[in-house]
Amino acid sequence: MALEAWYMDSSDDDQRKPHRLRPHQPVSSEELQKLGVFHWRLDADHFDSDPELRKIREERGYSYMDIITIHKDTLPNYEEKLKMFYEEHLHLDDEIRYILDGQAYFDVRDKEDRWIRIWMSKGDLITLPAGIYHRFTLDETNYTKAMRLFVGEPVWKAYNRPADDFEIRHKYVSSLQGS
């Protein structure tokens, strides 16, 4: 099953709604790859023994892993955390998330600074490159369980926009010139 992504409208309505631009403008996996966003579809029911996940982790050096459940009954300061996740930001390292259950959205900026919404569901693993502006939110189901992967020790620091002076942002923008 292919990843579903589309350009977003500019509505201020609930962030958990799909926000599809009208007319609908889908975004292909190839277009996302040009932005440095990569996707795999894996067997989330057997993540602990999945050879494909093990191979991806070994090839990419994802040595650290933890699991977070995002739901009002399991995440302390739930509403505050959702607002924080939805602030536009970047990281100095790649962001790697694997949806083990539930659903969620990642929004990323394209080369023209337009928002692309990526809908993720159980079995979707995504990597966002260091330096890309993005944000995260649940969909209207208000629940997801995700594996967070890192190269080495986890780094949780997000740099809210504007963060254009970071070297990693310059490197990311330069990488787009050739695509």
Structure write-up:
The protein is an alpha+beta fold and 179 residues long. It has a single domain, classed as Jelly Rolls, CATH 2.60.120. Helices cover 20% and strands 34% of the residues. The protein contains four helices and ten strands; from the N terminus they run βαβαβαβββββββα. It has helices at 29-34, 51-60, 78-86, 167-177; strands spanning 4-7, 38-41, 62-70, 89-90, 95-109, 115-121, 124-128, 134-138, 144-151, 159-160. The strands form two sheets. Strands 1, 2, 3, 5, 6, 7, 8 and 9 form an eight-stranded antiparallel sheet that branches. The longest helix is centred in the C-terminal third of the chain and has 11 residues, at 167-177. The two termini are 25 Å apart.
| Discrete helix count | 4
CATH topology: Jelly Rolls
**Can you tell me the CATH superfamily?**
Jelly Rolls
Shape: globular
In sequence order, what are the helices and strands, one letter per element?
EHEHEHEEEEEEEH
Uncertain stretches of 5 or more adjacent residues = none
CATH architectural category? Sandwich
Q: Strand-residue fraction?
A: 25-35%
**Mean pLDDT figure:** 96
Q: How many individual β-strands?
A: 10
